[in-house]
Amino acid sequence: MTKLDQQKIRNFAIIAHIDHGKSTLADRLLEKTRTIEPRKMKKQVLDEMELERERGITIKLKAVRVTYKFSPSSKFRISDNKCKLENGKYVLNLIDTPGHVDFSYEVSRSLAACEGALLLVDASQGIQAQTVSNAYKAQDLGLKLIPVVNKVDLDYADPEEIAREMCEHFGFPENEVIFTSGKEGTGTREVLEAIISRIPAPSGDARAPLRALVFDSFYDEHQGVVANVRIVDGSVTNSEKEEQLHLMGSEQEFSPRAFGYFQPQMRPVESLQTGEVGYIATGLKDIKKVQVGDTVTNFKSETRNKKARGIEPLPGYKEPRSVVFAGLYPTRKGKFLELRDALGKLKLNDAALEYKPTSSLALGRGFEVGLLGLLHLDIVKERLEREYELDLIVTAPTVEYKVRTQEEEFTVKNASNLPDKYDEILEPWVVAEIITPYEYIGNVMKLIDEARGEFEKQKHIGEKRVKLVANIPLSEIVSQFYDTLKSASSGFASLEWAFAGFQPVDAGKLEILVNKEVIEPFSRIVISDKAYEIGRRIVKKLKEVLPRKQFSVPLQAAFKGRVIAREDLPAMRKDVTAKLYGGDQTRKDKLLKKQKKGKEKLAQIGSVSVPKDTFREILKD
Ligand code: GDP
Ligand code: MG
Fold first, then answer.
1. Which of 98, 196, 220, 559 satisfies CB 3.0 to 4.6 Å to 531 for a cystine?
2. Using a 6 Å cutoff on CB, does residue 148 contact ligand 1?
3. From the CB of 35, is ligand 1 less than 6 Å away?
4. Cβ atoms within 10 A of the Cβ of 621, count?
5. What is the pLDDT of residues 288-299, one digit of tens each?
6. In what order do the strands lie in the sheet with 354-360?
7. How confident is the model at residue 302 (pLDDT cuts 50, 70, 90)?
8. Is 33 close to ligand 1, i.e. is its CB under 6 Å away?
9. Those residues with Cβ within 8 angstroms of residue 488's Cβ, 6 or more apart along the chain or in another chain
């Protein structure tokens, strides 16, 4: 096999705000380069997961290699070409990334493996919060950005205006902007030519010892943990299969099973050279040993001492940080081990998922999980239920609080762990950046205020929009802020945020009691000002949704141990056949059977049966 010419490799990511068309443009690139046979082509082909396809979102990043024969079109602008360009075949490694704010850490991983990125903006939407944050991440890493205005086929879009906005905001020269329609295929060739002519070839040292950056990993039944890597220096070749490779961070040695790249299926090759993006099948069983951000080196026995060889590990990435925490419990007892195995399997491919066993008086054994946000929680829950046939109760998601007593300071991620006595509770705050069209400024300001936020400053973006910066408690952001922001701005405002430390808060534990018994999964930490309102709402809702019993049942809300709201569930036996006078016995039987089946869906919480859907309803608040 001929060796790949390093000068003919380009590594790039596609970054954009969610729904601006990354995956669709990736489809066009795969098509144009004939990476996928036309008959096998389907929409958003890189979104393989069932959930991704159903919801039309990208959850996992994908790396795929395409080759393109470069012979410049008449439209090609040579002016911005810095390196000597030869016609011929180029290898392009494309990394498609997720766009939702929950998954922004995935983006930073892929960027570190690239020299450039397409910065895509939807011509009908303009620059949004993740456009800005991803662009800055890429610029910080020194990537060459290619501005692309996408969806130019839309009648109501104003591509020229959006192009001006991009130039003004990010400082692109006007003639660098490319106009595309992922839907119709416009501009695909120009994009490919820009990638080749504007993004520099990888600059690693081919003669240096191997350094490969792990930017993702997943578990494969046959090959063990497979690391997605970018070969920064040196190379790996088949002869090394006999030898040991070494992960510098986890200090783990392994004998590689195979090397290769994705197209998008795994394609084994003889070697991976400097500058290439591909995979190394490690044969390891434990994904924790193959952490994102780690460096793979080769580990020849005579040079065991890596310091002596002067190999520096590559700078790692930002570690994902859990933002929301919730309890996951199987509805049926005895499913704990199954849940544990399922979580273990999910974790193999989701480095950001954290979990540890916990138990609750009411719910039995389960897990406390830490996640990147509510969408992430929703996805994990749904995958567990679908792919592993589990039926789960999820407790009210919460952020992490700090609690101070005279003696100590500790963190609380679960309302039931909040002690009765303490001196102070602190809650996490974030700096939020919201981009919105001018006409919605009033609405957004009001939202910030309602979320206990503090407005800091604003900056114009183009002629029609503005960026607002505010400090807001994280608990407000993760609960409803995002959805409310969307509806308050007809979907136009977008949000990006970063941690900004802890602040004291006047808060305490809100508990819900059914028949005088605390229903633990409903417990949550709330601020004092809102305790009454939330408590009232929950008991009212419970009254609506709980099945009645032969006796009346008190429903109460207590804040810091004091009852603050009460409703009574009146006694009544619900006879579903009562309204069926007349004698159709089969129909009666059917109904009774249906009622019985309904009962099976109840979750037993202490002495009270609560329908599973009720849990979901209540926890949504
Ligand atoms: P991603 O979230 O950035 O990966 O965006 P997707 O590629 O999933 O696209 C989001 C939505 O926009 C989908 O409904 C696409 O069909 C649509 N879309 C993508 N590109 C275009 C385009 O060029 N024109 C039009 N009209 N729609 C597009
Ligand atoms: Mg996508």
1. 559
2. no
3. no
4. 13
5. 788 777 899 986
6. 354-360, 364-371, 324-330, 392-394
7. very low
8. no
9. 440, 443, 444, 446, 447
